[in-house]
Design goal:
Blueprint (H helix, E strand, L loop, with lengths): L6 E4 L3 H12 L4 E4 L14 E3 H6 L10 E5 L1 E5 L5 E5 L5 E4 L1 H15 L2 E3 L2 E9 L2 E9 L5 E4 L2 E4 L7 H5 L9 E10 L8 E5 L10 E5 L5 E7 L4 H11 L3 H4 L4 E11 L8 E2 L2 E3 L15 H21 L4 H31 L2 H13 L2 H5 L8 H8 L3 H17 L2
Parallel strand pairs: 1-2, 1-12, 2-8, 5-14, 12-19
Antiparallel strand pairs: 3-7, 4-7, 5-6, 9-10, 10-11, 13-16, 13-17, 14-15, 15-16, 18-19
Helix pairs in contact: 1-3, 1-7, 7-8
Bound molecules: flavin-adenine dinucleotide.
């Protein structure tokens, strides 16, 4: 490699590319190594994202056909099929084609000056006297090459092995759920502006099922489970669920992918001398919904700012780079704490209680309280905003009683 990059990003997923984009915009010389031959592929993600959060990140509106549909409604089904619907005043979320979304961010990063090397797997960190000095990369059929850099940003996703090499603690394997994401055609009886969410231990123990329709009769359907085979749960859903089995009675699966999701909240230390970890690699994923794109992008932007500052000061020490952890915690720490508690609460509920909770939400008119909600990523802050509303207050008191009885 001719010029030594200031920064190397390992992994050209959305989070790695957004770190590269922001670093390049700040003037850093950045190289991204992606092990696959194309950005965004293979894809395993539903791509359900908040429109407002994308706007705040400077990524919305998105060009071309990246957005497949927008949603202003969510239907939550209890295990017995009871439906609680929330109608929002305007579309709040969208489903994106993840391959096209990832490519869009990578293209922007390239235009800003980032260099992309595809078919290039980062094999290990280049260490000198225990200090990270770059990476060792294997490009296609070439011999492994050492590429020095001032800082390495680890954006490898959930199975990061660079993080392990630094000696930092990796994400908590006990808080993983195992997901299946399928593309289906011939879906019926769905509202085209509504995301369907099915709850219940028979179909998604420890998580939930989602169904996101497209306008052409196709849909993305997926689920995650704490134990068992996700494909078998999907088959059971399609055959037996009181509502989903009717919507999917004639459906044909055209593509299927499997991947874990991390629900344990961010790792406690995502930096070392000359090293930052971002996105799924650092478990920056919402413990409630498993959504990791927006929070990962948010942390990637912070990582780029701190890395750029470190490069300019020529101070790549761990004591300077801890600023990254601090800024991420300042921005998202409260929300992660709230979401971890909500996840614990949800995990503690029996199917009967889930049914009871949804019926309670409908009874107190919680749907009306939620109709102006726009924020779905920063869930702690979103909760604080609506807490003053009477129905929310009643709901909170009820949930708290359930939570305390399940977690004495
Ligand atoms: C079934 C499912 C559905 C999901 N649905 C949603 C959703 O609707 N909304 C949402 O916000 N989130 C969702 N998520 C989570 C979301 O997919 C992740 O949080 C997001 O992809 C994280 O982005 P990332 O860039 O950190 O990692 P990734 O997207 O995993 O990208 C990592 C990249 O690094 C590359 N790589 C890995 N190791 C190396 C290496 N050593 N050298 C070079 N390249 C390497 C990989 O090839 C990959 O391209 C879902 C996850 C699953 C499993």
């Amino acid at each position: 490699m001719k010029d030594m990059p200031d920064a190397i990003v390992a992994g050209g997923g959305p989070v790695g590319s957004f770190a590269a984009l922001n670093l390049a915009k700040l003037g850093a010389n950045v190289t991204v190594f992606e092990e696959h031959e194309a950005i965004g592929s293979p894809s395993h993600c539903a791509g359900h994202l908040s429109i407002r959060s994308l706007q705040n990140l400077g990524l919305y509106p998105l060009p071309g056909k990246i957005v497949e549909n927008t949603f202003s409604q969510a239907n939550f089904y209890s295990p017995t099929g009871f439906k609680f619907s929330v109608h929002l005043a305007k579309p709040v979320t969208c489903a994106v084609n993840r391959a096209a979304f990832d490519k869009h961010i990578a293209d922007k990063a390239e235009v800003a000056g980032a260099r992309y090397c595809l078919n290039s797997r980062v094999q290990s960190l280049l260490m000198e006297d225990s200090v990270i000095k770059g990476v060792n990369v294997k490009q296609s059929d070439k011999a492994e090459e050492s590429v020095p850099a001032k800082i390495v940003i680890d954006a490898e996703g959930i199975s990061s092995m660079l993080l392990r090499q630094t000696g930092l603690s990796t994400l908590n394997p006990e808080r993983l759920v195992y997901a299946v994401e399928a593309e289906v055609e011939n879906v019926r009886d769905v509202e085209l502006d509504a995301v369907e969410v099915f709850l219940g231990k028979n179909y998604a123990p420890g998580f939930y099922v989602w169904l996101m329709p497209r306008l052409d009769g196709t849909a993305k359907v997926g689920l995650a489970t704490k134990k068992g085979n996700p494909k078998e749960f999907l088959q059971r859903l399609m055959l037996k669920h009181p509502v989903a089995s009717k919507q999917l009675a004639n459906a044909k699966i055209t593509r299927i992918a499997f991947h874990p999701i991390t629900l344990g909240g961010p790792i406690s230390k995502a930096y070392a001398s000359g090293f930052l970890a971002v996105g799924d690699a650092a478990s920056q994923v919402k413990p409630t919904t498993g959504g990791g794109v927006v929070v990962g992008l948010t942390c990637a932007r912070i990582a780029a700012e701190v890395a750029d500052e470190a490069i300019r000061r020529n101070d790549l020490s761990s004591s300077f780079l801890q600023l990254y952890q601090k800024r991420c915690t300042d921005t998202l720490g409260f929300d992660f704490n709230v979401m971890l508690r909500i996840r614990r609460f949800l995990d503690s509920l029996s199917d009967e209680k889930v049914d009871e909770v949804l019926r309670f939400c409908a009874r107190i008119g919680l749907d009306k309280t939620l109709e102006n909600v726009e924020e779905i990523d920063f869930q702690g802050q979103a909760l604080l905003k609506i807490l003053t509303k009477p129905a929310m207050f009643a709901a909170l008191a009820y949930f708290l009683t359930l939570y305390l009885s399940a977690n004495p």
